[in-house]
Amino acid sequence: MLVRIYFAEGLVAHRLSTIVTRTGDDGTTGLGDGTRTGKQSLRIATIGELDELNSHIGLLLTEALAAQIREDLVDVQHDLFDLGAELCLPGRTVLAAQRVIRLDACLAYYNKSLPRLEEFILPGGSRAAAQAHVCRTVCRRAERSLVALAAGEPVSETARQYCNRLSDLLFVLARVLNRAAGGSEPQWQSQRSRGQR
C-alpha cells in the first residue's frame, strides 16, 4: 500500500493516521486535495511507478556505496517524494526547476571520471551496478507514464525533465559502480560479432 503524506507549498495533504482505512475497497483512492479517483487511472499508475522507482533506489542503497553516491541517491529519493506530491495535488508545482540543474551537476561530476563509450552496455556487472540498471529502466517506465499523463492533463515541464535526466544519471552511476567494483562493463556484441548460432 502506498501511504501518502505529502507536504507542498505549506499545505499538508491528507494524512493517513491508520494504514487500514478500507476507503479503497471500492477501487478508488484519495488524492492530496481530498478528491477520489480510480486506482486504474493514469495519474495513480504514474505515482505508483515513481514509488516503485524510489523503492528500487532504496534497495540500491543497501549496497556498499561511496558516500557521495549515497548522498546523491538519498537526495533523489526526497525529490521523487516531492514529485509524487506534485502528482497527488493536481494543478500544483512542487518539484523545483533547480532539482533538474542539480541532476545536471551530478551527471557532469560522475561523467568526467568515465572513459568514452565505445559500445552499448549490457545491464549487469556488479550487483550494485545491475541494481542501478533496474532503477534506470523503472525510471524510464515512470517517465513514459508521466509523458502519457501530460498528453491529457497538466504536468510540469520540470517533472518530465527530471525523470529524463534521472534515468541518464542512473545509467552513468551503473558505469561508475562497475568501475568501483573493479569489473569491466559488459558490452553488447552483435550476432555477427558473436558468430552465427
Structural class label: mainly alpha
> What percent of residues are in strands?
5-15%
Helix content: 40-55%
Strand order in the largest sheet: 1-2
Assembly level: single chain
Mean of all residue-level pLDDT scores: 83
> From the alpha-carbon coordinates, what is the Rg to the nearest angstrom?
19 Å
Question: Which regions contain 5 or more consecutive residues with pLDDT less than 50?
Answer: 1-14
Please give the count of helices: 6
- Shape category: elongated
- How many angstroms does the end-to-end distance come to? 46 Å
Order of helices and strands: EEEEHHHHHH
- The total count of strands amounts to 4
Largest sheet: 2 strands, antiparallel
Summarize the structure.
With 197 residues, the chain is mainly alpha-helical. It has helices at 42-60, 67-88, 98-111, 127-150, 157-180, 191-194; strands at residues 7-8, 11-12, 28-30, 36-38.
Strand and helix map with partners:
Blueprint: E1 7-8, E2 11-12, E3 28-30, E4 36-38, H1 42-60, H2 67-88, H3 98-111, H4 127-150, H5 157-180, H6 191-194
Antiparallel strand pairs: 1-2, 3-4
Helix pairs in contact: 1-2, 1-4, 3-5, 4-5
